[in-house]
Design brief:
Layout (H helix, E strand, L loop, with lengths): L4 E5 L3 H12 L3 E5 L25 H12 L4 E4 L2 E8 L3 E7 L14 H5 L6 E3 L9 E3 L1 H4 L22 E7 L1 E4 L3 E3 L16 E3 H11 L13 E8 L15 H15 L4 E5 L10 H11 L1 E3 L5 E4 L5 E7 L4 E7 L1 E6 L1 E3 L3 H8 L25 E3 L9 H18 L5
Parallel strand pairs: 1-2, 1-9, 2-3, 9-20, 11-18, 12-13, 12-18, 13-14
Antiparallel strand pairs: 4-5, 5-8, 6-7, 10-19, 15-16, 16-17
Helix pairs in contact: 1-2, 1-9, 6-7
The structure holds flavin-adenine dinucleotide and iron/sulfur cluster (SF4) (2 copies).
C-alpha cells in the first residue's frame, strides 16, 4: 500500500518537527517553506550557555534541521507558497515556486556572490551548514538590480532565465505551521528604533552576536558595556491592542544577559520590566541567580533620546523613588514579542481555519490545541499563539500524532 501523504505549510521548528515525526512513522511529507531556507526564526538564535546549558533551545533547531534534510521521506519545497487548497476525498493543493535563479546542482557554496553583493542584500545566506542550498536570491531586493548578477558566479550557477512554476500535489492531511511575526519595534516611536543606531531589538542582538561573536554597538563596533533591556515591547500593550504576554521575551532577555555576564563579569546590565514571566520548573531558581548579576527595575521607560557618543538617555518613572529619573546606557535592547503572521487572514481563507480575536489560528478544542473545526487540517507552533521552541516542538509532536490518528495509522 502507498504510504499516506501529508502537506506541511511552514518550515520553522514546528513544521520541521511535525515533518520528521510523520516521516519517522512511515508517511511521506511535502514541507512547503516560503523563504529560501528551512529553520524559521529560531535557526538564527545563538547558544546562551554559561558554565551550564541554560536550555534556550537554540541547538535543538539545528539538530531538527539536520534530521529533516537527511530524511528521504520529506520532500522540501523552498521559496514556495500555497495558491489553492481543494478538498475532495483528499486535498489537492496548488503550490507556486518562485524563480530560484541559483542552480543548486552547480552552486558550490563558495559565497563569492554573497560577498560581492553584500551591500545590496540581493543574495541571502542561510544560518546553518544544513541550509541546503546555503545561498538564495532575495527576490525583494532583486528588482531593478538584475544586471549585478551577470557573470558574478565562477561556476555559472546563477541564471536569470528561471521562471516561477506551479504544480498540484495531493495530500491526505495538512498541518499549518506558518509561525509568527516579530513585533516591529519601529511602532514604539518614543524608543527611536531605526533612528538611533544603538537601540536594537532582541532579533538584532542575535544577528550581531552571530556575526561578530560579541555584542557590538552598531554605531562604532565597540563592545557594549552598559546595556539596558526593555521588556514587553509590543506585548501587553493596551495602546497597540496587543494584550497577550509573548511568554518568550523574559526568558530570552534573562538568558542572554546571564550569558553576556558570564563572558564579561564587568558588564553593567539592567532589565526594565512590568513582571517577569515565570516559564517552567527551573525558571524561579534561574531568576534568583540572575538577581545577583543583573539590576532589575520595575518600570517601563517612557522614552529614549540620544546623548554624546551615540549613548542613550532613558526617561523612566521609578516606582521605588516615586519620581521621574534619567539614566544613560550605551546600548538598549528592545525585547520584542510574538505577533500573528500577517498572512493568517489569507491562509484562513485558503484553509478554512478560523482566527482568534488576536489574529492567531483558532483551535477548536481547549485540551487539544492542534485541532480546528475542519477535520484533516491541523495547526502547530506559534501559528496558534505564543510559544517557545520547546513548546512549539511539543505542539508539533501533538499535531503529528493527531494526523496519525486521523489517517488511521495509530489508534
Ligand atoms: C527575539 C526573539 C527571541 C527568541 N528567543 C527564543 C529563545 O531563545 N528560546 C526559545 O525557546 N524561543 C525563543 N523565541 C521564540 C521562537 O522564535 C519560537 O518559539 C519559534 O520560532 C516558533 O517556531 P514556529 O515554527 O512556530 O514559527 P517560525 O519560527 O515563525 O517559523 C514559521 C515558518 O513558516 C514560514 N511561513 C510563514 N508563512 C508561510 C506561508 N504562507 N507559506 C509557507 N511558509 C510560510 C516562515 O518563513 C517560517 O520559516 C524567540 C522569539 C523572538 C521574537
Ligand atoms: S544554552 Fe541553548 S543552545 Fe546552548 S547548549 Fe543549552 S539549549 Fe543548547
Ligand atoms: S514574556 Fe516577559 S517581556 Fe515578554 S510579554 Fe511576557 S512579561 Fe512581557
Amino acid at each position: 500500500m502507498e504510504p499516506k501523504h501529508v502537506m506541511i505549510i511552514g518550515g520553522g521548528i514546528a513544521g520541521m518537527t511535525a515533518a520528521w515525526e510523520l516521516a519517522e512513522s512511515g508517511l511521506r511529507v511535502d514541507l512547503v517553506e516560503k523563504s529560501g531556507f528551512l529553520g524559521g526564526h529560531a535557526i538564527q538564535y545563538t547558544c546562551k550557555a554559561t558554565s551550564e546549558c541554560l536550555q534556550c533551545g537554540a541547538c535543538s533547531v539545528e539538530k531538527m534541521l539536520k534530521n529533516v534534510v537527511e530524511n528521504d521521506s520529506i520532500h522540501v519545497h523552498l521559496s514556495t507558497e500555497i495558491e489553492n487548497i481543494e478538498k475532495n476525498t483528499t486535498y489537492s493543493i496548488t503550490i507556486k515556486k518562485s524563480a530560484a535563479f541559483i542552480d543548486a546542482a552547480k552552486c558550490t557554496n563558495c559565497g563569492i556572490c554573497f560577498e560581492k553583493l553584500k551591500d545590496k542584500g540581493i543574495i541571502a545566506r542561510g544560518y546553518s551548514k544544513n541550509n541546503i542550498p546555503l545561498y538564495a536570491i532575495n527576490n525583494e531586493k532583486l528588482c531593478g538590480n538584475e544586471d549585478s548578477l551577470k557573470d558574478i558566479c565562477p561556476e555559472v550557477a546563477i541564471s536569470l532565465n528561471d521562471a516561477p512554476s506551479s504544480k498540484v500535489l495531493n495530500a491526505d492531511a495538512v498541518i499549518v505551521a506558518t509561525g509568527f511575526n516579530p513585533f516591529d519595534a519601529g511602532r514604539k516611536a518614543t524608543y527611536g528604533y531605526a533612528k538611533f543606531p544603538n537601540v536594537i531589538s532582541g532579533l538584532d542582538l542575535e544577528r550581531i552576536k552571530r556575526q561578530k561573536g560579541f555584542l557590538a554597538r552598531p554605531s562604532d563596533g565597540k563592545a557594549a558595556q552598559k546595556i539596558a533591556f526593555i521588556q514587553c515591547v509590543g506585548s501587553r500593550d493596551e495602546n497597540l491592542g496587543n494584550l497577550w504576554c509573548s511568554q518568550i521575551c523574559c526568558p530570552y532577555a534573562l538568558r542572554t544577559a546571564e550569558s553576556l555576564k558570564h563572558k564579561n563579569p564587568d558588564l553593567d546590565i539592567t532589565v526594565f520590566y512590568m513582571d517577569i514571566q515565570n516559564t517552567g520548573k527551573s525558571f524561579p531558581a534561574f531568576y534568583e541567580t540572575c538577581k545577583n548579576d543583573i539590576r532589575f527595575i520595575r518600570s517601563i521607560p517612557v522614552d529614549i533620546f540620544p546623548v554624546e557618543n551615540d549613548n542613550l538617555n532613558m526617561r523612566l518613572f521609578d516606582e521605588i523613588h516615586g519620581a521621574p529619573e534619567m539614566e544613560a546606557f550605551d546600548l538598549v535592547v528592545l525585547s520584542i514579542g510574538i505577533m500573528p503572521n500577517p498572512e493568517n487572514k489569507k491562509l484562513s481563507e485558503q484553509t478554512g481555519i478560523g482566527l482568534d480575536a488576536d489574529g492567531f489560528f483558532k483551535n477548536a478544542d481547549e485540551l487539544n490545541k492542534t485541532e480546528i473545526a475542519n477535520k484533516g487540517i491541523f495547526i502547530a507552533g506559534t501559528a496558534q499563539g505564543p510559544k517557545n521552541i520547546a513548546a512549539s516542538m511539543a505542539h508539533a509532536g501533538q499535531a503529528a500524532s493527531c494526523v496519525l490518528q486521523y489517517l488511521g495509522v495509530t489508534k
